[in-house]
Amino acid sequence: MMKLWWATSFLWLVLFGAVAMFIAVRKVDGAGLEQTPELRLVAFIVLGVAFVFILLCQLVFLYFARKRKSVSTH
Q1: How confident is the model at residue 73, as a pLDDT?
Q2: Residues 30, 36, 37, CA angle at the centre, nearest 5°?
Q3: Quick one: DSSP state of residue 35?
Q4: What values do phi and psi take at 34, rounded to 5?
Q5: Integer Cα distance of 13 and 58 in angstroms
Q6: Which of left, alpha, beta for 28 (phi over 0: left; psi -120 to 50: alpha)?
Q7: Segment 2-50, tens digit of pLDDT
Q8: Which of 7, 5, 4, 3 is nearest to 60 (CA)?
Q9: Is residue 5 classed as helix, strand or coil in its secondary structure?
């Protein structure tokens, strides 16, 4: 169970890093608007909110995975 947690954590980290790099280097967004620092900041804030949500889900999963591991070893 812990291997699954580590694998998904690594996957999320790579995914968020790739999206952050994409936001940082793009000149025009999907709607055709030229990226200004303000629009880029809004995109990073949205990405940060998504990151916090995924982080909380991962921590809840870790809590139950460790709890299950400690119960199965006793």
Answers
A1: 64
A2: 120
A3: P
A4: -70, 135
A5: 11
A6: beta
A7: 788 899 999 999 999 999 999 999 999 888 889 999 999 999 999 999 9
A8: 5
A9: helix
Residue 64: how many CA atoms within 13 Å on its side-chain side?
6
Q: Which two tokens stand for residue 33?
A: 């608007």
pTM of the model: 0.79
At position 55, the amino acid (one-letter code) is L
Token pair 């400690």 in the structure block, residue: 70
C-beta of residue 34 within 8 angstroms of C-beta of residue 27: yes
Query: Containing H/E element for 62?
Result: helix 37-73
How far apart are the C-alpha atoms of 20 and 10, rounded to whole Å?
A: 15
